[in-house]
Amino acid sequence: MSPGRLAHTYSIVAVDPAAGEMGAAVQSHWFSVGSVVPWAEAGAGVVVTQSFVNPSYGPRGLDMLREGMTARQVVDALTAGDEGRDLRQVAVLDLSGAVVARTGSGCIPEAGDLQGKGVSVQANMMLRPTVPAAMLRAFEAAEGPLAERLVAALVAAEEEGGDIRGRQSAALLVVRTVPSGRPWQDRLVDLRVEDSSDPVGELSRLLRVHRAYEHMDRGDVAMERGDHQTALEAYSAAERLYPENEEMVFWTAVSLANQGRLEDALPRFSRTFQRNDQWRTMTARLADKGQLRLDDRALQRVLSLGRPPAP
């Protein structure tokens, strides 16, 4: 089968059994690497396919994993009938935590793969042969959620010299190990940087934004229930992670006001109005629907922020 596109790159697949998460991260000097290299599905496993990419390795590999084949069996089956297998690089993670990778003899140096417990790193066309080892060390030394640890491995690859051609795109994909029955909830992180001079740096920023919006989601659910204390905690956490986002500042202000902390809310309302005056209209609409609990005097105080006094 002919390759789809060149994706000389470095990637990592890994599982966090305690958290019930598994996934992959990748960077390449190629446009939209996330659309062809990483594949993951809750209840199946993870596949990365790179070098002279055979795109079918992803969906076919997941099909085999879903049917109960081991990582070793999947790698062997994918490559056995592929005349271009010596040009390919593939890694597979199954639900047992087993990881198997294959670097074809025709992959362009520096190329190789390295495994640890529940993790495999693989790279080709690197500046130095030390990239996989640097990635594995960084991943195993990192703390926190799986997604952040995967990105730490990409950062280490860049610091070690990375792709000899440079950098262009990156992607991060994390799913649950056990499906919930709600597929929209099983894909935990799905971020792509399609074309950038600093794709790993941008991926790190997007992950921070993603975490902030996780808090925003929690705040929205709390608001829906009328649980203003939990909403305040969630929106405040989002604001700390992403203070440059006016919406997070605004909803923190709303939650503070709903908790009777108008003096703390006022500077935040003022900042959002300065950035975008349409938030002032939004404030009035929230009050009209009872989602901003202010009496008329307090509401007018908020709405007058930043406006010149009446003559």
Write a structural description.
It is built from eleven helices and eleven strands. It is of the alpha+beta class and 311 residues long. It has two domains: 192 residues, 4-Layer Sandwich (Glutamine Phosphoribosylpyrophosphate, subunit 1, domain 1), CATH 3.60.20.10; 92 residues, Tetratricopeptide repeat domain (Serine Threonine Protein Phosphatase 5, Tetratricopeptide repeat, Alpha Horseshoe). The strands form two sheets. The chain has a six-stranded antiparallel sheet.
Quick recap:
The chain is 44% helix and 22% strand.
> In the CATH hierarchy, what is the superfamily of the largest domain?
Aminohydrolase, N-terminal nucleophile (Ntn) domain
CATH architecture classification of the largest domain: 4-Layer Sandwich
- What is the topology, as strand order, of the major beta sheet? 8-9-2-3-10-11
How far do the termini sit from each other?
Answer: 78 Å
What is the strand tally? 11
SS element count, helices: 11
Strand content: 15-25%
SSE pattern, N- to C-terminal: EEEEEHHEEEEHHEHEHHHHHH
Q: What is the arithmetic mean of pLDDT?
A: 94
Question: How many domains in all?
Answer: 2
Q: Helix amount, in percent?
A: 40-55%
What class do helices, strands and sheet pairing give?
Answer: alpha+beta
| Backbone CA Rg | 24 Å
The description of the largest β-sheet is: 6 strands, antiparallel
> What's the level 1 CATH class of the largest domain?
Alpha Beta
Query: The CATH topology of the largest domain is what?
Result: Glutamine Phosphoribosylpyrophosphate, subunit 1, domain 1
